[in-house]
Automatic annotation (TrEMBL):
One of its GO terms (molecular function) is metal ion binding. Keywords: ATP-binding, Isomerase, Lyase, Metal-binding, Multifunctional enzyme, NAD, NADP, Nucleotide-binding, Potassium. This is Bifunctional NAD(P)H-hydrate repair enzyme. Residues 225-493 form the YjeF C-terminal domain. Residues 9-215 form the YjeF N-terminal domain. Belongs to the NnrE/AIBP family. Belongs to the NnrD/CARKD family. It catalyses: (6R)-NADHX = (6S)-NADHX; (6S)-NADHX + ADP = AMP + phosphate + NADH + H(+); (6R)-NADPHX = (6S)-NADPHX; (6S)-NADPHX + ADP = AMP + phosphate + NADPH + H(+). Homotetramer. (6S)-NADPHX binds at residues 57-61, 128-134, 157, 260, 323, 374, 439.
Length: 493
């Protein structure tokens, strides 16, 4: 699925109106119906719905939603925030369409706001993607009141006050919804951790905007959902043998951190690799042999850390990083690996920290190497960013410059290709913010590269499946109880 910026969304809107063709008022009606359909599937007639409308098209949506819910005999109260004389044409048309007797209130001053009523549903249709400046005055007061209420808050298209494709200021007044129901395509703002409070559980509803336009319009931003991920999966053919699926080498673990090697290794085994060899310090020998009978073990000469690179000939991919530590001898191994590797690499955790401390190595990374930093590791690699949009720009430049695939881990992990395109991931949950889940991802990616998935597709599919396994684990266990081994247990596609 593509993600468009605001001017592209406007162009898509205009293209649909001109070429379907459909009037903008009918398109607004379609959007309102899609919202109402979503609403009615989740909320019953018991709760009063308070709909707060601005005077642009987002407010027009709000009025149309109010009329449709009123006809369905929901208990609706409509509040038009009358902060300006200006109003969009479709807002005005929908105001005229409000049925006689529908409870419609105009709010000109803050003291005309209704008293809070816990248990109500608030629909936020104040401002949509047309936001052009920080919210002030009466609108800001209404937003503050919405945020202070104990009601369930639903934003139409996007939380009022939140920019769809650029950073907000720290003092900006923005609705904090429980849900955002957005039209046709997700907004870039939904992907970024800094907007966490201003998104809630977001859902896309289809309003039939031009599929041709969406296909032809180019964008650097994409969303990897179930359909995209499914299309990436290669079937395992009947006459395959273990050689078909590659032989992975995993260099991981140190004294006290053998768990990282086990998590990465078992995830690799559960992700379809043909053969796995784990290269671990001597202290890890019986641990790996006992816990992962399916893997072969190569022991390092050193008891506690990795100090030697094994001969690489047998292997079709190398994953390095989980639980390594940063000893100078381990750095030598990483340097040798980067210099000698003729196969794809996955570098994670301490391998990334070693890279950050030795940036000259970045220039030497084989093309298509996958790096999987969490935000702190990325900061060490690429420097500071003032906000998430800047971090995204930094990530795109980094991936282009070093011709690597970056998996910038987070709520919607951003998989950045060497061409600078960004593929945000749909799956995963906050339960996965716990030690070891990153090691699991390294194992999954290593297995996919062993199976000859190109680095870009391995990253996109691996990140998706890792998150999906985490979602299944959270369903079984709850997010609170989820641990990294549960993610391994739930791998499989
Ligand atoms: N995409 C689609 O295909 C469809 C989109 N639809 C809906 O349209 C919405 C976008 O509509 P929209 O462009 O009219 O924007 P919206 O945000 O309602 O209002 C803009 C107005 O507010 C003003 N304004 C801006 N910032 C302000 C501020 N801080 N404080 C005060 N005022 C401010 C701004 O003024 P201006 O910048 O011009 O000075 C302008 O007058 C979209 O989110 C979706 O809900 C659906 O109906 C159907 C299909
Ligand atoms: K809104």
């Amino acid at each position: 699925m593509k993600i468009f910026n605001v001017s592209q969304i406007r162009a898509l809107d205009a293209h649909t109106i001109a070429h379907e063709p459909i009037t903008s008022l009918d398109l607004m009606e379609r959007a309102a119906k899609a919202f109402v359909c979503w609403y009615c599937a989740r909320f019953d007639h018991q709760q009063t719905v308070r709909i707060f409308c601005g005077k642009g098209n987002n407010g027009g949506d709000g009025l149309a939603i109010a009329r449709l819910l009123h006809h369905k005999e929901y208990l609706v109260q409509v509040y038009v925030v009358d902060y300006t004389e200006q109003a969009s044409d479709d807002f005005r048309a929908n105001l005229e369409r409000m049925p006689q007797g529908a409870p419609l209130h105009f709010i000109k001053k803050q003291d005309e706001l209704p008293a809070p009523a816990p248990g109500t549903i608030l629909i936020d249709a104040l401002l949509g993607s047309g936001l052009s400046r920080p919210v002030e005055g009466l609108l800001a007061a209404v937003i503050r009141a919405i945020n202070q209420s104990e009601a369930t808050v639903l934003s139409v298209d996007i939380a009022s006050g939140l920019y769809a494709d650029q950073p907000n200021g720290p003092e900006d007044v923005i609705v904090q919804p429980d849900y955002t129901v957005t039209f046709q395509l997700p907004k870039l703002a939904f992907m970024l951790p800094q907007n966490n409070r201003f998104i809630g559980d977001w859902q896309v509803v289809d309003i039939g905007l031009s599929a041709d336009f969406i296909e032809q319009e180019s964008t650097p931003y994409y969303f990897t959902d179930a359909a995209v991920a499914r299309a990436l999966i290669r079937p395992r053919l009947k006459f395959s043998h273990k050689g078909t699926f590659g032989h992975a080498l995993l260099i991981a673990g140190s004294y006290g951190k053998m768990g990282a090697a086990l998590l990465a290794g078992s995830a690799c085994l559960r992700s379809g690799v043909g053969l796995l060899t784990a290269h671990v310090p001597r202290c890890g020998y019986s641990i790996v042999q006992t816990y992962m009978p399916e893997a072969m073990t190569q022991v390092d000469p050193h008891e506690e850390i990795i100090t030697a690179l094994p001969a690489l000939e047998p292997y079709s991919v190398v994953g390095m990083g989980p639980g390594l530590g940063k000893d100078p001898q381990t750095l030598r191994v990483l340097e040798a690996l980067i210099a000698q590797a003729q196969v794809p690499l996955v570098l994670d955790a301490d391998a990334l920290n070693l890279l950050a401390e030795n940036p000259a190595l970045l220039q030497k990374l084989p093309q298509g190497t996958i790096l999987t930093p969490h935000p702190k590791e990325f900061q060490r690699l690429a420097g500071d960013a003032a906000h998430d949009y800047e971090r995204l720009a930094l990530a795109r430049r980094f991936a282009r410059k070093y011709q690597v695939v970056l998996c910038l881990k987070g709520g919607h992990t951003a998989v950045v290709f060497p061409d600078g395109t960004v593929h945000f991931n749909a799956t995963g949950n906050a339960g996965m913010a716990t030690g070891g889940t990153g090691d699991v991802l390294t194992g999954v990616l290593t297995a996919l590269l062993a199976q000859k998935y190109p680095a870009e597709q391995a990253a996109q599919l691996g990140v998706y499946q890792h998150g999906a396994a985490g979602d299944r684990a959270a369903e079984q266990r709850t997010q609170t109880a989820l641990i990294a081994s549960d993610v391994v247990e739930n791998l499989g596609w």
